[in-house]
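G., before I forget:
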Amino acid sequence: MSDSDEPQQKTVIGIAFGNSNSSIAFTGPDGKAEVIANEEGDRQIPSVLSYVGDEEYHGAQAKSHLVRNPRNTIAFFRDYLGKSFAAVDPTNAHSSAHPIQHDTGVAFSVQEKTDEDPATLTVSEVTTRHIKRLSDSAADFLGKPIDGCVITVPTDFSESQRKLLSEASKGCGLTVLQIIHEPVAALLAYAAREETSHPGDKTVLVVDVGGTRTDAAVIAARGGMYTLLATQHDYELGGRQFDEVLVDHFSKEFMKKHKTDPRENERSLAKLRLECENTKKTLSLSTSSQISIESLADGFDFHSSVNRLRYELLSKKLVDQVVGLVESVVKKADMDLMDINEVILAGGTSHTPKVATRIQQLFPSTTVVQSPATSTTAINPAELCARGAAIQASLIAEFEAEDIEQSTHPAVTVTPHLTKSLGVVIASPTGTNDKAEDKVYVFLESETAVPARRTATFIGTREGGDVLIRIVEVRKESVDVTPTKEEKAKINGVNEDDEDDDEDFDEDDEDEKVFKRVTEVERVIAEAELKDVKKGAKVEVMLNVAGDLTLTVTARVVGGQGGVRGTVPG
Ligand code: ATP
């Protein structure tokens, strides 16, 4: 076969479209996703467009114009897409082009061309221009035109927002193959690293601490299917708030020296904000950081420094809020922190060591928290969405449009699922099976998507005789067994009065909670009895849960004749 006969592979990319930053990624021939740097060398490309003279600037260049040319600089527009003017919160756009009402939606008025009247750019138009810049950067890097993309959006993006996003992308000639949820993309980025094609069943918490918002999601991964169990959002918590604590801190210092508040002058404030963001990022890597701004306000320069401990003290409330969001999303999923097998931290602000360590402290030390501060093998949290989107794009690149729509793998589906875990207790009616009587084997974890079927074999009876098989609903609970202060003092041989009363913030003064996992029978839902089972013979139990949650139980002696079967309505 000649080269020209070979099917042409489509060039597809993943796009993470954030309010603050966007990124683009592609999957190489080795199946590994890689985030692409744009022409300026940035992998986190600010979602910002700025109009200066007759030029359009994009990304980091546009962001720098927030100081000199804020009214012609459009930032934080993603969440305005498809919303009415009355429904949007303009706070984030306070120091950039202000959103204005346009027909039923939102637009920005900017001086696009020097000799013309200001132009009104709708959010859809801005989105088209932004996606075009991203797509052009990807085409430049890959050296070929882009045929399609998968874009990530938050879980609360509405159907009409998704439709507008698809149309906006089409507007610049880029076909959207699929729009997927950000936390699922984060999960895919990690799942792609696992060796098996169907990584084990687990319940994963994804916490995305971005620039303008924080989103948390609990996802059940069962047999290669993902089910979104609960989501929670905080639209007033993100990297911007972390920047703001440094802005306030340095402003106070500046005021003490120069008797003028840089926050009162728009340009001084914009300068200070940009520098505080850099200082904050440095503090994720180093224990202290310098800040240096020429002519910050009233012609005075500003030079100072801050250490990480001070920053952590200043931002403690914000970290508390992230922790609170984590606790509440797990509760909303009707789960216990112990039910979470893995935590994935996504979003740029997840680089903050204190955010990661405080979340780690919530969970038992056996729970993996994927973040740079808590795991050496973590993927850059700011790259997860783009990578996941690129992986998904490469999986579905050759699908027909209808098949993509139908494709459940690996997009999240809200399928019917078990609300309780189902387990099996093997007992002997005569009670001779002593210890085995207490043991609950968890067969199907709660949140398993139905229909589902599982089979397992057990040693029926050590003595020989009848075997009673109980199918039970399992209650899993974690009991807080953290030692009290008195118990701890006793263990450590410390006199309580000797304790250090230092009020200063202590890196490790938050106690790690100790939990014990308890698995108990909540309710027996079916019983099956096998008669005269030989000593040591194996018993096979099969549970089959239909789509309407009807349970069929089959039990038989392996190698024996017959067996029992029963059905319990859902
Ligand atoms: P959103 O949609 O919530 O605005 P996003 O997805 O567009 O967020 P991200 O790139 O995830 O944006 O997050 C941007 C935020 O992450 C910014 O506030 C940025 O300052 C912060 N950030 C990036 N890198 C670091 C770092 N190394 N340490 C601390 N914060 C960081």
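Residues 407-414, 431-437, 498-509 have pLDDT under 50 and may be disordered. The two ends are 56 Å apart (CA to CA).

More on Monday.
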